[in-house]
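Exercise 7. Given the encoded structure of a 195-residue chain, write a plausible sequence.
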């Protein structure tokens, strides 16, 4: 498939977009607690006043906005695949390829945004926990719907849960092995075992 997840342009048109992009980068490379506002400001090329104009509640609000941005990107990608006739397996393979690119580029040293914030921030932040649940639910819903269309006599939600867990786990093993492509290999191997 030639459909790819979009990323914010290098010269994002708005300060808010630049702040979100910087937040996503640092949350995935340094974790939530390891990310400071000063680093976000430097990467976004803006000042503290602009940060608090867009995110008056601080870093937690930025993390929630980052998850909202990612949810929009991923669901748009999955909806595009579904519209082009791709099935559940192609959707999962696409997510795995995207994860592998992030590992290869070094932008996901702490894992995906989902994994980084779930481990680092969700235990202490009900707002981030809700945003994580919403994002994961939106992805699982689309994977389950695709699977239900293909196999109406099965429960697509089981496949969706397993697929999301498989991509996340495969990404961890790929980082352990030092080989980003292991993400794709592990997920593809699992998908081959799915009937």
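Solution.
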């Amino acid at each position: 498939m030639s459909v790819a997840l979009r990323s914010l342009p290098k010269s994002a048109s708005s300060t808010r977009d630049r702040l979100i992009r910087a937040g996503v980068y640092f949350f995935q490379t340094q974790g939530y607690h390891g990310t400071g506002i000063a680093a976000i400001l430097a990467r976004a090329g803006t000042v503290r006043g602009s940060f608090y104009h867009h995110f008056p509640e601080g870093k937690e609000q930025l993390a929630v906005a980052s998850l909202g941005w990612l949810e929009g990107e991923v669901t748009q990608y999955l909806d595009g695949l579904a519209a082009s006739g791709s099935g559940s397996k192609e959707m999962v393979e696409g997510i795995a390829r995207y994860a592998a690119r992030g590992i290869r580029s070094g932008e996901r040293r702490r894992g995906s945004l989902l994994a980084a914030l779930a481990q680092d921030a969700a235990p202490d932040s009900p707002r981030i926990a809700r945003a994580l649940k919403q994002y994961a639910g939106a992805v699982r819903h689309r994977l389950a719907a695709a699977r239900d269309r293909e196999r109406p006599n099965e429960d697509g939600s089981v496949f969706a849960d397993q697929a999301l867990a498989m991509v996340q786990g495969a990404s961890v093993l790929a980082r352990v092995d030092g080989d980003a492509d292991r993400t794709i290999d592990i997920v593809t191997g699992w998908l081959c075992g799915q009937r």
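Remark. Residues 1-12 have pLDDT under 50 and may be disordered. Students should compare their own answers with the one above.
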